[in-house]
Amino acid sequence: MTTIPEYDIARSAKCPLDPAPAMRARQEEGPLARVRLWDGSTAWLVTGHAEHRAVLGHPKVSVEPARGLPRLSPAEAAAMDSISKADSASLGFIMMDDPEHARLRRMVTSAFTVKRVEAMRPATQEIADELIDRLLAGPKPADLVEAFALPLPSLVISNLLGVPYDDHEFFQANSRTIINRNSTPEQRGGAQLRLAEYLDGLIGEKLAKPGDDLLSGLVERVKAGELSRQEAARMGVLMLFAGHETTANMITLGTLALLQDPEQLALLRDGDDPKLVASAVEELLRYLTITHGGLRRVALEDIEIAGQLIKAGEGIVVVNETANRDPSVFPDPDRLDLQRNPRLHVTFGYGVHQCLGQPLARMELQVAYPALLKRIPTLALAADLEQIPFKHDGFVYGAYELPVTW
Ligand code: HEM
């Protein structure tokens, strides 16, 4: 009898920017593998690039907890039980299937078009420059996460949504609790509730006095009867937490990856070509794949992926980080090559749930890396790699701190 390998996402301490050794081992065996989860149940682990897209693009695959998503940790299982009992919609449309998902998503897509996001570039550049001024005026070494990587996307998303940045400690702490794999259901539920109440309060204020922001736009739809106030608050929570932690982790780990590779770093620091900057951002997104560990789905009917039957009700874990290192799509995939322009990377997912905020994230990163490297050409790590506290406990990979000097 063949034994089924364990699901294991622990990245190695020596190569913290590479996918977990166990994930790579599964990928070497084939694009689809059966893995055993912590509770003894099994799920399909999808590690190949073509198969990743086949699953996430499949109409008979669901993302709703109540349909039986695979549960990747004890804490997550308990949390999913409580979500299923309440309703999938409590996490916003990221955990809802079409047509409800599409109905809600459509209401906010216009805020994230490339054109709308481009209009935010000058203000984002100003934010980056001000944060760097403050960093340079302060003591060194400094923590890049606190001084730059976290405030930049938090300020941008606050301005876009119409959330007061003064409340950033509150919304950052609660967002971290939501995406921590090990949060208890009480902790995660509490954080969600606090954010939902907070957003509901803001919606109340904007009902009385609308502004020129995304939440005020949702308030107009509430007034028109197209959206309930609760749905508007949940969408606000989703965009607020999805909109800053992810980008912050990319700024942190991208800077770390560049500091470890002086030749590649020099391309960005010394060049001025926007095409290179755009390609560099895509390559860092591919190489680092902060959305790691697997997107969870469940088959609604029997489906066939890579010649393998996945039966109705079986859980599927779709792994971005191995798809992004698939050598049949990205030659020499373990090499960071800022000039490769890896158009087909899947760090933003694929299919109907593909990241709504990706134009915004791209623009922020295109501003952040060159600003940092050009304004602080002597930027250097102020700790050994082994001392950096990586976020092994999150759905989104990153580092809690990045000590830098100059
Ligand atoms: C580098 C930064 C980011 C990365 C790597 C990222 C990654 C992802 C991924 C992988 C998904 C798909 C989840 C799934 O299929 O289950 C997703 C969905 C989503 N992201 Fe992002 N994201 C980033 C930034 C942002 C930003 C700035 C926003 C701003 C609001 C945002 C908002 C969302 C929303 C609302 C969804 C749900 C989309 C849906 O279900 O239709 N993300 N993101």
TrEMBL record:
<dbReference type="GO" id="GO:0004497">
    <property type="term" value="F:monooxygenase activity"/>
</dbReference>
<dbReference type="InterPro" id="IPR036396">
    <property type="entry name" value="Cyt_P450_sf"/>
</dbReference>
<keyword id="KW-0560">Oxidoreductase</keyword>
<dbReference type="InterPro" id="IPR001128">
    <property type="entry name" value="Cyt_P450"/>
</dbReference>
<dbReference type="InterPro" id="IPR002397">
    <property type="entry name" value="Cyt_P450_B"/>
</dbReference>
<dbReference type="GO" id="GO:0016705">
    <property type="term" value="F:oxidoreductase activity, acting on paired donors, with incorporation or reduction of molecular oxygen"/>
</dbReference>
<keyword id="KW-0503">Monooxygenase</keyword>
<keyword id="KW-0479">Metal-binding</keyword>
<comment type="similarity">
    <text>Belongs to the cytochrome P450 family.</text>
</comment>
<dbReference type="InterPro" id="IPR017972">
    <property type="entry name" value="Cyt_P450_CS"/>
</dbReference>
<dbReference type="GO" id="GO:0020037">
    <property type="term" value="F:heme binding"/>
</dbReference>
<protein>
    <submittedName>
        <fullName>Cytochrome P450</fullName>
    </submittedName>
</protein>
<dbReference type="Pfam" id="PF00067">
    <property type="entry name" value="p450"/>
</dbReference>
<dbReference type="GO" id="GO:0005506">
    <property type="term" value="F:iron ion binding"/>
</dbReference>
<keyword id="KW-0349">Heme</keyword>
<keyword id="KW-0408">Iron</keyword>
